[in-house]
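Subject: mismatched residue count in predicted assembly?

I count 260 residues in my input, but I want to confirm that the predicted structure covers every chain. Input:
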Amino acid sequence: METLSHSEEQVMTALWNCGKPATRREIAACLPADCTWADSTLLNFLLRLENKHFVRSEKQGNRNIYTPLVRQVTYCGAVSAAHLQRLYRGDLKAMLGALADTGRISFTDMERLARYLDNRAAESPEYDYD
Amino acid sequence: METLSHSEEQVMTALWNCGKPATRREIAACLPADCTWADSTLLNFLLRLENKHFVRSEKQGNRNIYTPLVRQVTYCGAVSAAHLQRLYRGDLKAMLGALADTGRISFTDMERLARYLDNRAAESPEYDYD
DNA sequence: AAATATCTTCCACAAATGTAAAATAAATAA
DNA sequence: TTATTTATTTTACATTTGTGGAAGATATTT
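Triage response: the counts match. Full output below for your records.
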């Protein structure tokens, strides 16, 4: 999958958060507060996203409607897998370890996470018999 | 923490893998096979890493010995925390969810991970009484 | 219809990144 | 001690990224 720059990713996130195809204005409204970009800046990122086939735009009068072409979970899954690969040779435990060792997740977090995983595992589709 | 580009990160990883202060040659030997860089390329990345205070270099005759100034776990923890923040608003469960939903971790992986977390939680320093 | 406001596209430019040739310095061999 | 090899530093350049002005459309108001 084609990779996105930090800004491009922020724009995609805003568009995903819109929940439906959106205009440049609506996307801007979903952007985090610290993105005080000029209109042309945002539009430029949207252009670049279009070239990377992450969005499609169709003209409606004089404005564009942007539609995401990649689902958020697809993108996030791919990026996280790459992250894991790059930093931990794909070993998720190593990542959890680094987070714990640097005080970013606590004992309680780990317990909760373990419960969450147990639950997810329990309802995993691999266990639907019929 | 200052951020690293992908190439710079690869160099740091190689240096960390050396396990001790290393020369450019030794670092090159620890690099993944697909990094077929010219010497000056690698040296340039080391220069940039020095400017970012990720390594220190001291001259030994005509060659340099490079020493990491940032521990791998420190860097990885910071980068992973940022990753989590950017893509999942800091919600680790959301990340696990995305990995599971895109077929990157299986039922078995989740179970194993849950066990791992239980163990880590059990021996968490927060539970050392005296 | 003319003036005005909106929107988008194009162009521009600085900074960061990937990459390496050319220049330089130090060590070694002849 | 002069050549030769080995390292490093300097310089350079293309591409990507962050950012926005200017120019060109389209719509709206007077």
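The first helix of chain B runs from residue 6 to 18. Marking this ticket as 'not a bug'.
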